[in-house]
Amino acid sequence: MIEIRWDSKKCAMPQDCRVCLDTCPQGVFRIMPKEARKPGKATEDWVIGTLFLSLCTACGTCSDVCPKKAITVAVAS
Amino acid sequence: MCEFCTQHGEGKKWYLQAKNYSEELLNDQRKQFMAEFFGDFEHVIGDKVAALDKAIATDAAGAKALFPMVVEQQKRDHWGQVVPVEEIEQILDMSLSVVRVPCACRSMLRGFREARYCFGVTGATSAAKALSVADYPDYKDLEVLNTEEAKAAIRKLDREGLVHSVWTFISPMIGGICNCSVNECMALKTRTRLGLQTMFKAEYAARVEWEKCNGCRNCMKVCNFGAISYSAYSRKCSVNQLQCYGCGVCRALCHRDAITLVERAAVPALAGEW
Q1: Residues 12..71 of A with a Cβ closer than 8 Å to B: which?
Q2: How many whole angstroms separate alpha carbon B259 and alpha carbon B179?
Q3: Do residues B96 and B22 share a domain?
Q4: What's the confidence (pLDDT) of residue B31?
Q5: Same domain as B170, residue B42
Q6: CB contact under 8 A, B54 and A51
Q7: What three-state secondary structure class fits B204?
Q8: Residues 6+ apart with CB under 8 A from B141
Q9: Contacts across the A-B interface (CB distance below 8 Å)
Q10: What is the CATH number of the domain that holds A60?
C-alpha cells in the first residue's frame, strides 16, 4: 500500500502553489476547501488530499518538486 | 443507436432533441441537485470518487461488483456522452442561452479555479444564474455567450484536442457541455483508469482513409484514448475502433482530411460498445 502524507504546517497556501497537482503524472491529488462550502462564504483554507491514490506508482515526483518539502510518499509492505 | 436514444430520443439522437433542453425540465428537484452538486463539488463528488478509489485499492473485485449499481444511479442522475463538434454546434443552435463557467474538475484536480471550459445550456443556464455569486463567492461571474461566441469557443477547444460531451442533471435534462482531456476530467478518468462507465462513447467511431494519410501523426498527439497507432513500415496511421470514443477531435489536426467518423451502429464489431 502506498501512503501520501501532506503536511499542512509546511504548506500553508496550497491554492497559490499547485505544483503537486500539476506535476503528478497520474493526477492523484486534489485540492479542496478544508471545510464544506457554505453559502455566502468564500473559501479561505484549502487542503491537499488524494483522490486517485490507487493510480499512484510512488514515483516520488511530488515530494521532489514540492518547494516546501511538505509531501512524503511511503510504501508500506 | 445507444440505449439513451431509445429511451430519451424516440429512436433519434437523444442529445439533438429539443425537449431534453426544455426550460420546463428545470424543476425544484433538479435545482436542488445542481446546487448540491456544484455548491460543494470537492466534497460531495470528490469524497465519493475517493471512497470508490480506496475500495478498488483494498478489494478490487469487491469494488467492481458494485459498479453496475453505481452506473445505474449515474444514468438516473448525471451521466455524459461524447459528442463530436458539429453536433455540439447543433446543440448550441437549439439552446436558448449559453453560459461559460469554470470547470469543477480542473478546479479540484489542478487547482485552476478559473478554467472556463464548461458550458451551461438552457435549464442549467438558469440554474447557474440561480446559484448566484453572492451565495457561492468561490465561483466568479458567469460569462453569458451568444450562439456565435459559444460556437467559436468550442471550435477553438476542438483544435486543442479536447473531447466534447453532454451531461444530464437528472436525466433526461441536458445541462452541460464539457470539454475535457483525460487526466483532468473526473468522468474520463474514472472511465478510462478505474473502468467505471459514467461517460459513454459517441454514436460514432473514427476511421483513417488509407490513401489520404501521409503519416504525420498529428492525430496521435491529440487522441485522449490511445486509439491511434502508426506503422513505421507503411508510414500510415490507423484507428483501433474498439478503443475509439468517437470524439472526432483527431480530424481537426489532420491536414489531409483523412479521418472520418462512421456511425458506431453501422460497425458490427462495435455493437454494444459504449
Answers
A1: 14-15, 18, 21-22, 26-27, 29-33, 36-37, 39-43, 49-55
A2: 20
A3: yes
A4: 86
A5: yes
A6: no
A7: strand
A8: B133
A9: 76
A10: 3.30.70.20
Split into its structural domains, chain A has a count of 1
Residue in chain A nearest B133 by alpha carbon: A40
The pTM for the full model equals 0.94
Cα(B77)–Cα(B187) distance, rounded to whole angstroms?
14
Local structure of B90: helix, strand or coil: helix
pLDDT, position B23: 85
CB-CB under 8 Å, A18 with B138: no
Question: Pick from B174, B200, B226: which residue ends a domain?
Answer: B200
What residues of A are in contact with residue B111 (Cβ under 8 Å)? 14-15, 18, 21-22, 31
Instruction: Determine the pLDDT at residue B254.
Output: 97
Residues 6+ apart with CB under 8 A from B53: A51, A52, A53, A54, A55, B194
Q: Which domain holds residue B250?
A: 204-270
Distance in Å, alpha carbon of A43 to nearest chain B alpha carbon: 6
A11 touching chain B per CB within 8 A: no
H or E element at residue A49: strand A46-50
Angle between helices B147-159 and B85-94 (to 10 degrees): 170
Digits of tens for pLDDT over chain B (274 positions)?
788 898 899 889 999 999 999 888 988 899 888 888 888 899 999 999 999 999 998 999 999 999 999 999 999 999 999 999 999 999 999 887 898 988 999 999 999 888 899 999 877 777 677 666 667 777 767 788 999 999 999 999 999 999 999 999 999 999 999 999 999 999 999 999 999 998 999 999 999 999 999 999 999 999 999 999 999 999 999 999 999 999 999 999 999 999 999 999 999 999 888 9
Q: Are residues B181 and B259 in the same domain?
A: no
Per the structure, the count of domains in chain B is 2
Span B100-136, pLDDT tens digits: 988 999 999 999 888 899 999 877 777 677 666 667 7
For residues B165 and B254, state if they share a domain: no
Of A26, A30, A55, the CB nearest to B42: A30
Tell me, yes or no, whether B152 and B188 share the same domain.
yes
